[in-house]
Each structure stands twice: as structure tokens, then as C-alpha cells.
From TrEMBL:
It comes from Nocardia rhamnosiphila. The keyword Plastid does not apply. Keywords: Iron, Iron-sulfur, Metal-binding. This is Molybdopterin-dependent oxidoreductase. Residues 8-64 form the 4Fe-4S Mo/W bis-MGD-type domain. It comes from the Bacteria. Belongs to the prokaryotic molybdopterin-containing oxidoreductase family.
Length: 712
């Protein structure tokens, strides 16, 4: 007799591996995902999905998926432990550490995969607040915290930013949204269905400028591509500002109303002529002039950046000058214009045509033992290793890692590993045995995205239009796992601490359901939770009718500071320094791939081509080094070295090397490329946010006998 055919069930959900939040259809058979398709009826992503999103079945059911939590024994082995027992033991150990060393001995690290779930960051922060510790870390401070520094030093215009959807020009610097879906920062630019979105914008007349040393997938779609030497964006943007101001292409009315110090800005950029830009950045003078003309000649549209600008040397300065370009061109919404109304599940914050002046809050923020201050309530992750390692009564002794993999992701790999190994207690919540989990005393196995209920409250700034979506769990989780948020709720309860959530205090004896929490979170939105749960493909909320309001009377005199003294000093340094890097003739730059988001996806069989992250160089550089495609090499920097193989890639500028981060494994049996953070360190970190340099790193590439996994 033929076996009965399993019935295939088609479920509707959305992917939560990156900010794109693509609508998907899942074919589920016998409790397993057989196929993931882009949801063509999804109003925002329109059927798009990417290679890693389509392999979600492997992420949920692959052999490396953890289906139970683990405790590390004295001999260093991980043995299974029920999550409830682990939570109780962790609460006891944290309690003992706090009693002995105080609350600042406990730290929380919030990683990338905590941020696409609505409830996890809320409950993690709620637990953390209850500890009384100041030692909060996230990936933002090894990513784009230059944007926070700009707000501190320049101030913020509160009327809102111009949008991609009705822009006639856009400049993307150091970002490759066709691959990363990064693009803007909260202006709805090119996050979803990026290739279609960019092509449609160009078809309606948008002119696209890309600033990137590599001819990226995004640069290939641009009207103008400037390829500066890595790490020279600050000078390039100073040069653009000079051209816009000297040719009087700026928005004089906006500047008169909202800028305190336009003459100071003009004076600071005056020496940065096209000839200077050509000398330092290698960008032809005519290309720079064309970019200034096209950008300032447009009526609407912004310059936005990604990691290529925010991880370089002078990252805070470069980001400041990009923001200054937007300001002098007046690329913000004015009083009476349609306001940004993408808050659908969250509370709408009225927009006003006024400036929040520079705060310099980080000057008053908690001062850590390493001398660095908190910014937006977080200590910079660049100092996490020192917070753990440097002796003293207030050092970090316990670290909870939520949805992150600092062992692989933080700069200065060897020191980071030493720090993580020296903790009294390391807890890692992760569905896989990441490098960080390998070192942990407790590994908590969580549900993965399709096994939990969720909605898009915290993803709203990434959508181009007011939109919201809810998903129920569409897969049955393995019996031994718990929702991420539930771990933090239970940990707070086991420590006897109340949990504050959405303006109320939750009863620790009566754990809420995920749906109850999601409903509370959406209480102040404009789409009722019931309507949301009844719309499986999501709700396009439509315009709210909100307009940009007039300034509050007390704010009429507030102005943006475009050239404070410390920014001027940084610009002087960027213009006068010679970049001394004897022995390191090449520059290593960041590069993301479609098949993985940081370490997520790197282990899915057959997904990443070659299951590795080779060093890519221009064919002329390879020829000059006498290397063929696939040759074994040693890549060396001032901080360390790795053995890897090379790949010829004509999109990489001569003089430049690309490698993708978050590869490599602490398991000597596992072949998974090499970890780029063996080549990075925290030397030369930026003032204020201690941002390390993670792109434009001076390196050399030399032939090596044969590949060999990195040491340690
Ligand atoms: N050299 C170099 N270093 C870099 C970068 C670079 O460009 N170059 N980029 C930096 C940037 S921008 C960032 S954001 C950081 C990334 O740093 P991290 O966020 O620390 O790194 P990820 O690999 O994204 O970590 C995500 C972890 O979450 C796990 N995970 C997946 N799904 C879930 C889930 O549902 N729940 C939980 N609890 N865990 C889950 C994954 O298995 C993975 O181990 O790296 C930084 N480091
Ligand atoms: N597929 C995929 N998507 C992702 C991620 C992923 O790992 N994979 N990671 C997610 C995360 S955590 C983040 S933070 C975002 C990041 O998103 P993006 O910032 O868009 O990241 P990348 O795609 O690495 O693009 C950075 C670009 O900067 C360029 N670049 C390097 N150095 C310089 C420089 O000195 N100057 C200039 N102007 N450009 C430079 C590189 O060539 C590269 O094209 O992407 C998110 N989305
Ligand atoms: S990982 Fe891919 S499928 Fe998932 S949301 Fe991001 S772009 Fe969409
Ligand atoms: Mo990131």
C-alpha cells in the first residue's frame, strides 16, 4: 500500500532576518518548512525574497539547530538542561555576583537578531533596567553610532526628513542596499525589494549618486558613481559642501532659519578644493563637480550612508559632513508639508518645524571605568573587552548575550575571546552553537522566527509607507525551546524584580502570552490589534493627514551647529594627516553578501558560495602580486593576520581588498572561512563613541604555502 501523502499547508508570515521584513508564504509539511516564497500579495515587498530568507527551513530544522538549553560542566562540556532550571541557576548566580560586586558587574549585549522581534528588545531592556547596571552594550556602537554623534554635536531638525518615494535625487555613500537592504536611516529608502525600488525610482526620474570604492550592485544602477580611496569620505563630503556653498547652490532660506553657523562651515571647508579632493580621495575633479551639481540641483532627496562611511577612520566627522550637506541643501520637511506618518502600531510623535539643539549628552552620560561615557544609555561595544579584562572592583563579570555573536563580530578577535573566556558567567541565547555560545556557561535555545508570534511595531521606520503586519506562530517549536522575551521575563521574575512593559508593571506570577504583550505594545497605534490580526498580508494604513506643525514658541531660536570646534579640529586632522602604513599597501573594506546576515546563514549547507569568505582583489593587483584566482595568501594588518584564499573581482577598486565579516569558527573541525576581526582592533577609535575602524584598514596580501584556519 502506498504511504498516505502528507498534506502541504501554506501559511502566510513575514521574514525576520533583516529589516526588510519581506512578506512570505511557507509550505509546511509534517511540521517542517519545505519551501519559502515571496508573498506577491504583500503590499510592500511585492513578492521579493532573498536567498537566505528562502532557506529559513534550514535555519529552523538544520542539524545545527539547538532544541534544548545547555549548561557547561566543570570539564567544559555542554550538557542539556531544561530552560526553567537554567533560568533559576542564572538568577542565583547573578544575584550572588551583584551582592558581592554590585550591579555594574552585570552586562547585557544586544545583537542584531534581537532587533527584528518586537518583544525581545523590550523585555531584555526591562530586565536590564531592573538590575540597576549601567553596562549596556549593543551592535549599534560597532555599526552606525556616528549618527548618534551627529545628533549630539549638530542637533536634530524635528520636522522630518525628505522621503525616497518623492525624491528626484538621492546619494548613497558606503552602503549597498541592493544586497544589504540598508540604504537610508529611517527615511524609507530602498529597504524592501531594493532592485525593483531603485529601478522604479530611476524610471520616474530620480538621479542616483553612489559613493563607494567598489563598483557595487547598487553603483551599477547609479547615474554617477564616485569611487574614493577607502577612508577618505570626510574629505570628499567637505569638498562637496565647498562646491555647493561657493556656487551658491544651497538652500539659503532653510539655512537662515535653522543654521547657527553657516559662515563657520563655509570657512572650514574652504580649503577643500576639487584639487585637494582629487589628491586625497583620488576622485576626478569633474566627477566631484558633477556630483555637487546633480545633488544640489535636485529639489528633493537626501544623502544617506551605511557602514562604509560609519566604520571608517574619521567616521564621526564624515557622517557629520554628510548631515551638513543635507542641511545646507534643506532636505527636510517644512511646516505645512505632509508629515512622516509611518507610526502605525507605535504612537505618532507630532513633527514640528524646529530644531532640537545639540545636547552633548554623552558629556554627562555614565562614565565607565575605561574613561568612556555612555551614549544614548549604552557603553560603546569597542570597550567591552576592557570592561571585562581590566582589573578593578567594577569590572564586568557576567554577560548576557541576546541575539548576537560578539565573539565573531567585535573588533580585536583575540582580545574579545580572552575577555569572554575570563567571565564568571556568560549566557548566550542563540538557536545555534555560535562562537559566543561555545564559550558560554549557559546556552539558552530560543524559538526561531516562524515559531513565534510577532508584529512590525519596531520595523515601522524602515517601511516606505504606513504599514503594519502581524504573524502568528506558523511552525510548531521543538519542545525544549522558549521565546527569547520569555527568558528575560522569567529571569526578572526569578530575581524577584518587577517587569515594566508598555506603561504597566507585569505580574511575575502570571506570565502574559506573546499576543497579550503584542496587543499592549500596539495600544497607542492607529490600527486596532484586532484589525491587524485579521489581515494576514498586513495593513496599509494610508495617510494619517498629519502635517508638519509650527515650532513651539520656546523653540523658535534653536539652531543647528554645523561646525563646532571639535568637528573643525577633526577636519583639519583629516586634511593634514599622511596615512602612515609602511608595509601595508592595500586597504581592506567591508562587504556584505546576500546569502548571510552577519553570522546567520553562514552555516546553511550550499547557501554561501564555497562556504567561505575569500579576499577579493582587482585582477591587476592579483597579477602584480603574482597570484592566481584561488591562491592561498596571508592577509596582514597592524593588528593581526589571517590565512585565506584570493578571488579576482573586477568590481573591487585597485588597491582595495574586500572580505565578509562574521565567518570563521572556534571549532577546529569546521571549515567556515576566517574571521576578519583578527585584522581589526580598537586602536585609533573615535572620540565620544569609541567607534573602532572596521573599514579602510591598511593590509598587505602575500602568497602563503596553503590555507590554514586562523589560530584561536
Ligand atoms: N570586521 C567587521 N566586523 C563587524 C562588521 C563588519 O562589517 N566588519 N559589522 C558589524 C555590524 S554592522 C554588526 S551589526 C555586528 C553584528 O554583530 P552580532 O549581532 O553580534 O552578530 P550576528 O552574527 O548578527 O549575531 C546574531 C546571532 O543571533 C543568532 N540568532 C538567529 N536567530 C535568532 C533568534 O531568533 N534569537 C536569538 N536569540 N538569536 C538568534 C544567530 O545564530 C547569531 O549567532 O558585527 C559587526 N562586526
Ligand atoms: N545580506 C545582508 N544584509 C544585511 C547584512 C548582512 O550581513 N547581509 N547586515 C545587516 C547589518 S548588521 C547592517 S549594519 C547593514 C549594513 O548595510 P550596508 O552599510 O549597506 O553594508 P554593506 O553592504 O557592507 O555596504 C557597505 C559598502 O561600503 C563600501 N565601503 C567600504 N569602505 C568604504 C569607504 O571607506 N567609503 C565608502 N564611501 N564606502 C566604503 C563597501 O564597498 C560596501 O559596498 O546591512 C544589514 N543587512
Ligand atoms: S532576509 Fe531576505 S527574505 Fe528575509 S526579510 Fe531580509 S531580504 Fe527579506
Ligand atoms: Mo549592523
Amino acid at each position: 500500500m502506498a504511504p498516505a501523502r502528507e498534506t502541504t499547508e501554506r501559511r502566510i508570515s513575514y521574514c525576520r532576518l533583516c529589516a526588510s521584513s519581506c512578506g512570505v508564504l511557507l509550505d509546511i509539511e509534517g511540521g517542517r518548512v519545505q519551501r519559502v516564497l515571496g508573498d506577491a500579495r504583500h503590499p510592500i515587498s511585492g513578492g521579493y525574497s532573498c536567498p537566505k530568507g528562502r532557506r529559513a527551513g534550514d535555519l529552523a530544522h538544520g542539524p545545527d539547530r539547538l532544541t534544548t538549553s545547555f549548561r557547561r560542566t566543570r570539564t567544559g562540556q555542554h550538557t542539556p538542561v531544561p530552560a526553567v532550571v537554567a533560568v533559576r541557576e542564572i538568577a542565583d548566580r547573578l544575584g550572588a555576583l551583584v551582592a558581592r560586586h554590585g550591579p555594574d558587574s552585570v552586562a547585557l549585549f544586544m545583537g542584531t537578531q534581537q532587533n527584528f522581534a518586537a518583544l525581545t528588545p523590550m523585555l531584555a531592556r526591562a530586565w536590564f533596567r531592573g538590575t540597576g547596571s549601567h553596562k549596556l552594550f549593543s551592535t549599534m556602537t560597532v555599526d552606525q553610532s556616528a549618527k548618534w554623534v551627529v545628533a549630539e554635536r549638530m542637533g536634530t531638525y524635528l520636522g522630518g526628513r525628505q522621503r525616497f518615494e518623492d525624491a528626484d535625487v538621492w546619494l548613497l555613500a558606503g552602503t549597498n542596499p541592493i544586497v544589504s537592504g540598508n540604504g537610508g536611516d529611517g527615511d524609507g529608502a530602498v529597504v524592501q525589494n531594493p532592485s525593483v525600488t531603485v529601478r522604479a525610482a530611476r524610471a520616474r526620474g530620480l538621479r542616483l549618486i553612489v559613493v563607494d570604492p567598489r563598483r557595487t550592485e547598487t553603483a551599477a544602477l547609479a547615474d554617477l558613481h564616485l569611487a574614493p580611496r577607502p577612508g577618505t569620505d570626510a574629505v570628499l563630503f567637505a569638498g562637496l559642501l565647498r562646491l555647493v556653498l561657493t556656487e551658491r547652490r544651497h538652500d539659503a532660506d532653510f539655512c537662515a532659519r535653522y543654521v547657527a553657523d553657516l559662515p563657520a562651515l563655509a570657512a572650514a571647508v574652504a580649503p577643500v578644493t576639487p584639487a585637494v579632493v582629487h589628491r586625497i580621495c583620488g576622485v576626478p575633479e569633474d566627477d566631484l563637480s558633477a556630483a555637487a551639481r546633480v545633488f544640489a540641483g535636485g529639489q528633493r532627496g537626501m544623502a544617506t550612508t551605511g557602514t562604509g562611511v560609519c566604520m571608517g577612520p574619521h567616521s564621526n566627522l564624515a557622517e557629520h559632513l554628510v548631515a551638513a550637506l543635507n542641511v545646507v541643501c534643506g532636505r527636510y520637511l517644512r511646516e505645512g508639508e505632509r508629515a512622516d506618518d509611518r507610526a502605525v502600531l507605535t504612537r505618532h510623535i507630532p513633527a514640528r518645524a524646529e530644531v532640537a539643539p545639540p545636547t552633548r549628552n554623552s558629556v554627562q552620560g555614565f562614565r565607565s571605568r575605561t574613561g568612556v561615557r555612555a551614549i544614548r544609555g549604552e557603553l560603546p561595544s569597542g570597550v567591552l573587552a576592557d570592561e571585562i579584562l581590566a582589573p578593578g572592583p567594577d569590572r564586568v563579570r557576567a554577560l548576557i548575550v541576546s541575539g548576537g555573536n560578539p565573539a565573531a563580530a567585535l573588533p580585536g578577535r583575540a582580545k574579545t575571546l580572552r575577555a569572554l573566556r575570563s567571565l564568571d558567567l556568560l549566557v548566550c541565547i542563540d538557536p545555534r552553537l555560535s562562537d559566543t555560545a561555545r564559550l558560554a556557561d549557559y546556552v539558552i535555545a530560543p524559538t526561531t522566527m516562524y515559531e513565534r508570534a510577532d508584529h512590525t511595531a519596531i520595523m515601522e521606520p524602515f517601511f516606505p509607507r504606513p504599514f503594519a503586519q502581524y504573524t502568528p506562530p506558523v511552525l510548531e517549536p521543538p519542545p525544549g525551546v522558549i521565546d527569547d522575551w520569555r527568558f528575560f521575563f522569567d529571569l526578572a521574575a526569578a530575581s524577584g524584580r518587577p517587569v515594566k512593559f508598555a506603561g504597566r508593571i507585569l505580574d511575575p506570577r502570571r506570565p502574559p502570552t506573546a499576543d497579550e504583550l503584542l496587543a499592549m505594545l500596539a495600544e497607542r497605534g492607529r490600527v486596532p490589534f484586532g484589525e491587524l490580526t485579521g489581515a494576514p498580508h498586513g495593513v496599509l494604513a494610508g495617510p494619517s493627514g498629519a502635517l508638519v506643525g509650527p515650532p513651539e514658541p520656546g523653540a523658535a531660536g534653536h539652531r543647528l551647529r554645523t561646525m563646532p570646534d571639535d568637528v573643525r579640529a577633526e577636519l583639519r586632522d583629516a586634511l593634514t594627516e599622511s596615512v602612515p602604513a609602511p608595509g601595508f599597501p592595500l586597504r581592506l573594506i567591508v562587504r556584505r553578501i546576500r546569502e548571510a546576515i552577519n553570522s546567520t546563514g553562514t552555516r546553511v549547507p550550499g547557501l554561501v558560495p564555497g562556504a567561505t569568505n575569500p579576499a577579493a582583489l582587482h585582477p591587476t593587483d592579483l597579477a602584480a602580486l603574482g597570484l592566481g584566482d584561488g591562491a592561498s595568501v596571508t592577509v596582514r594588518s597592524a593588528a593581526g593576520r589571517v590565512r585565506t584564499t584570493v578571488r579576482a573581482d573586477a568590481t573591487v577598486s585597485p588597491g582595495t581588498v574586500t572580505m565578509t565579516h562574521c565567518f570563521g569558527s572556534l571549532d577546529p573541525e569546521e571549515e567556515l572561512g576566517v574571521n576578519v576581526n583578527a585584522l581589526t582592533g580598537t586602536a585609533g577609535a573615535q572620540a565620544i563613541n569609541a567607534m573602532p575602524t572596521m573599514t579602510a584598514i591598511p593590509v598587505s596580501v602575500e602568497p602563503a604555502p596553503r590555507p590554514n584556519p586562523e589560530a584561536g
